[in-house]
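Researcher: Quick test of sequence recovery. Tokens follow.
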């Protein structure tokens, strides 16, 4: 799944400001620097690319000298993630690295902690809240769990497939996004937020070096927000296939054939994952449309054709249904800065 063509709902952006004291003028300035149309801040169904969200995150982290901008009572100063990585790179294996990861946060964070728990064949990294965070609680839990998952996967140079995700909060309205945000089984209202995975992975050696660290830091947090697990989820395989520009207009019969499945089997397996073919196809077209409106220069008519729509009117109707605004409104919002 290409990070450049995936999106997140606008409430991620809205909630990113929750722990910070910012005026409307300041928010408008930050959004302009991140190339996010200001009108989207109040758009109920608005979306931005993962790269736009990551750009805004880094802007706020730099401005407030806090790599968890406004999340906690004590800021994590610039360079925290770098020194965290340096402290684990010489670990013999992932288990030792995750133990050091937990100890690092015990030293620098008062409001929350990480804990590595091993039970039978399952290892769990828990994010345990000690006091309510300053920022939006759900977003803080989501991003702090994505941090440990993304960093652990990077350390062993291998995607870690979650066996289960536990969330210490009620099921949010955007939980349908977890099909891509947290692939696998998700349980809400749990005692703590945690990612559970095969304990055998703890034996994996650390494969990264200091030479690879700068690239990892430059791509954070974009690279670990949405990760494709096509080996695990058919919805991800379908999305990856459709994301190839020449395949975006494919019908279900064509995709099923390309994935060596019958239409019935493809439909049944997608239903078991809580989705269906047209929903995945529309998500791909929506995300590519937003990405192109953000960084591309193609006319709306050309873009409509590339996305497989018969005409601009059909594209406008679909985009309004997906985001609450027309593609023209979105592009004009960017041009107004």
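Model:
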């Amino acid at each position: 799944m290409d990070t450049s063509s995936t999106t997140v709902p606008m409430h991620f952006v809205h909630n990113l400001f929750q722990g910070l004291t910012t005026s409307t003028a300041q928010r408008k300035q930050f959004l302009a620097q991140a190339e996010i149309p200001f009108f989207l801040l109040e758009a109920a169904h608005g979306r931005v690319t993962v790269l736009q969200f990551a750009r805004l995150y880094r802007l706020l982290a730099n401005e407030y000298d806090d790599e968890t901008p406004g999340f906690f009572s004590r800021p994590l100063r610039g360079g925290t993630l770098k020194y965290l990585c340096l402290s684990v790179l010489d670990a013999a294996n992932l288990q030792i690295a995750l133990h050091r990861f937990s100890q690092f946060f015990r030293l620098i964070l008062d409001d929350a902690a990480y804990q590595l728990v091993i039970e039978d064949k399952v290892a769990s990294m828990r994010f345990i809240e000690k006091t309510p965070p300053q920022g939006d609680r759900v977003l803080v839990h989501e991003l702090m769990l994505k941090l440990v998952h993304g960093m652990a996967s990077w350390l062993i140079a291998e995607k870690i497939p979650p066996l289960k995700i536990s969330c210490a909060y009620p099921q949010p309205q955007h939980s349908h996004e977890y099909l891509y945000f947290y692939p696998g089984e998700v349980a809400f209202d749990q005692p703590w937020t945690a990612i559970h995975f095969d304990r055998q992975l703890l034996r994996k050696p650390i494969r990264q070096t200091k030479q690879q660290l700068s690239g990892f830091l430059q791509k954070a947090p974009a690279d670990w927000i949405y990760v494709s697990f096509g080996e695990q989820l058919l919805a991800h395989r379908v999305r990856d296939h459709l994301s190839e520009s020449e395949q975006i207009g494919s019908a279900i019969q064509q995709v099923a054939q390309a994935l060596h499945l019958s239409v019935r089997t493809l439909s049944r397996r997608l239903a078991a994952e809580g989705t269906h073919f047209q929903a995945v196809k529309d998500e791909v077209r929506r995300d590519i449309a937003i990405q192109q409106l953000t960084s591309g220069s193609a006319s709306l008519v050309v873009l409509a054709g590339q996305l497989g729509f018969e005409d601009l009117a059909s594209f406008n109707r679909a985009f309004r249904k997906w985001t609450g605004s027309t593609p023209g409104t979105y592009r004009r919002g960017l041009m107004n800065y």
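The chain has three domains: 3-74, 80-219, 234-335.
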